[in-house]
Amino acid sequence: MPIRNFSIIAHIDHGKSTLADRLLQSTHAVSDREAREQILDSMDLERERGITIKASAVTVQHVHKGETYMLNFIDTPGHVDFSYEVSRALTACEGAILVVDSTQGVEAQTVANAYMAVENNLELIPVVNKIDLPSAAPEKVAMEIEQVLGLPAEDCILVSAKTGFGLPELLAAICDKLPAPREPVMKQTRALIFDSHYDDYRGVVIYVRVFDGRLKAGDKIRMMGTGRTWNVTELGKYTPKPVKCGPEGLGPGETGYLVANIKTLKDVRVGDTITIDNDPAPEPLPGYKEPRQMVFCDFYPTSGTDAKGNDFEELREAMEKLSLNDASFTFHPVHSEALGFGFRCGFLGLLHMDIIQERLEREGGVEIIQTAPTVSYELETTAGEVIEINNPAELPDPSVWKELREPIVRLEIIVPKEYIGDVMALCGNRRGIYRSQTVVSESRQILVYDIPLAEIIYDFFDKLKSMTRGYGTMDYHLVGFKVDRLAKVDILVNGDPVEALSMICHRDNAEHRGRQLLVRLKAEIPRHQFEIPLQAAIGGKVVARETIKSMGKNVTAKCYGGDVSRKRKLLEKQKEGKKRMKAIGSVEIPQEAFMAVLDQGE
What we know:
Layout: E1 3-10, H1 16-26, H2 44-49, E2 56-64, E3 67-75, H3 83-91, E4 95-101, H4 108-119, E5 123-129, H5 138-149, E6 157-158, H6 167-177, E7 190-199, E8 203-212, E9 220-223, E10 229-231, E11 234-238, E12 242-244, E13 255-259, E14 273-276, E15 295-301, H7 310-325, E16 330-336, E17 340-347, H8 350-363, E18 368-370, E19 374-375, E20 377-381, E21 386-389, E22 401-416, H9 420-429, E23 433-439, E24 444-452, H10 460-467, E25 473-483, E26 486-493, E27 496-497, E28 503-506, H11 507-524, E29 532-538, E30 541-548, H12 564-584, H13 591-599
Helix pairs in contact: 7-8, 11-13
């Protein structure tokens, strides 16, 4: 039976999941009675937000020109934070369907995903979707695809995933245009792990694509990366229901799932090669890089500042359970004087962080306090050692610094031409370096900037959307680390540093950022009997200061009449007491004050 392996890739909200639904219905894998929207999006969160978070692999059969084809396809996420899911899916395929919304045109993630597919030597089939909408401009979008991506406009297939129009032509193109899987190059078995998830009853379920040899139930397999061995208890395919394979198992070019009583996801490395233990392959398949966490923040339970507190243990259990299904985020315990015991977590981006927080609260039943997000820096010490800094509190004394480097990303923005000046000003204000400008169509252009990641993780996307009335789209990827005039800004309350509020920022922005934070802190900390200075300092130099005035107490109220020296004596006594109180008194910072500062970013 001829096999075709392909992924569905697109910008977020261009109709990938709807197209996958129609493909399942057109190939009769799902009956009309079983059909529902976003069949492959199994998470409630995916269905509510209308986005795909995890890739889904499905096998269906389709008869074309009297011959039955086996179609293995993967529905991938569209958001930039989940581009590692897309890269994993593309390594398991020979082709890709590039979906473009006929009302939106080519957008930033469309370009990024197309380039990723080209790098993997995949055959691309361009599809113009949503042609049933009144505002659709399919011919114009087809010309955009030709201009930006170099795919001939006449090759674009016009489809309405909602109504099913154009599906027969698309299925015919998949069978005719996409290449068959390559011939096996060795008799030993080699299968690529391209995804995995945790099942409460069966343990880890691994998604594999077989390139050489054959996998059967009962085989003793070896993971070539880790060297661990397991016995395969079940092999099957999702159609989209799980269906066990027959005694012949999975052959070259086929994708499917594998169960082998593996208890934790840490035993499985996505990108690893599976081979047979008693006849191993001489070398593994080329994998791909592990996802790199880009954004870091702390999660604390809302109550339970004690290490023995139930809330802390509940949060740990919820995180461990979630990490079984999403190995791309990291966490380790931390302690803060203000917020108690919690976890320092690493994420692929801000949406990923948002999704993890919502899943923890929903699936784990825990309430979370979240600190402001930060990025990962590189510090080279005078001894020549390079340290990764994920938290400003981890920075050593400035005397051992040689270079502090910040992550730089290549930012691609597709924007209507009337907003180009505003977007350029925004990038310039965020220390962006202009790289290039390309015309997409008569109304839109691509701007490319190199910009520090720390400058875009807070509100850059919101500002871009508001200034372009929702039409601007962006995509970014890490290009390296660069030395700049960076400094650690400490926040001092009554002369004592508060580590939870310290930050790393550019020296030119230190005063503005520090003062912004102090003003918010001043509004939240209640007044005490003595004056409280709030300071932002770089090393020993104070760059910003605000003062919380002391509460007045009328000590002369009991003096009615009499000599003025009595009043003066009481006021002098009060002055001395306030001075002593300021020296030995401690400032209680309520948790609400931290949250007011952290919720708004720094």
